[in-house]
Amino acid sequence: MRYPIPAGVHREKDEIERSRFITTVAPAATIDEAQAFIQSIRDEFPDATHNCWAYVVGPPGSTARIGLSDDGEPHGTAGRPMLTALLHGGVGDVAAVVTRYYGGIKLGTGGLVRAYGGCLQRALETLPRGERVEWVAVQALVSYADVTPVRQLVAAHRGEILHEEYGADVTYTVRLPAPDVEPFVAALRDATRGAAIVERP
């Protein structure tokens, strides 16, 4: 499975009716990572009026592992519109915190919903994106004569050699993007005239 994720931590700033809003978005592959990120923003802005947050762990739009908090704002005015923005933002494994410094003018519930949801939508529009790829490890036993073809095939299939062991033959532990495993194995067997022994550790 492959899907877009945040490429790294991304931040945007807005001012609405004299309140300052700081939106920070980050990758979060697990709930623990999301919660650690949220805590890091709380630690960075301990004097903020509110640090409201939401996260979606999993593919874009997935509701299996989600979380949200209004952090003291009226119920449903911050975390919910933020979560809605994340679920429709086209990225997965994502956590966001919108930090608010109150500026003295009340926004009302509708204004808060628009502010929190809108700030996060704008941040998602400028968010640099990466890709989550499911990796699979395989072991390949080949003769010394086939070392060069193996290295070339690993590179050609976007893989990475994790470990090599030299004995009577050479054993490689390789990780590959899941969709590339079968093509890699077929190409390796072809290049070694069927002599390569491939298994998943």
TrEMBL record:
Domain Impact N-terminal: 18-124
Listed GO CC annotations: cytoplasm
Domain UPF0029: start-end pairs: 142-194
Gene3D superfamilies per record: 3.30.70.240, Impact, N-terminal domain (3.30.230.30)
Family: Belongs to the IMPACT family.
Pfam families: DUF1949 (PF09186), Impact_N (PF01205)
Protein name, per record: Impact N-terminal domain-containing protein
BP-aspect Gene Ontology terms: regulation of translational initiation
Classification via InterPro entries: EFG_III/V, Impact, Impact_N, Impact_N_sf, Impact_YigZ-like, Ribosomal_Su5_D2-typ_SF, UPF0029_Impact_C, UPF0029_Impact_CS
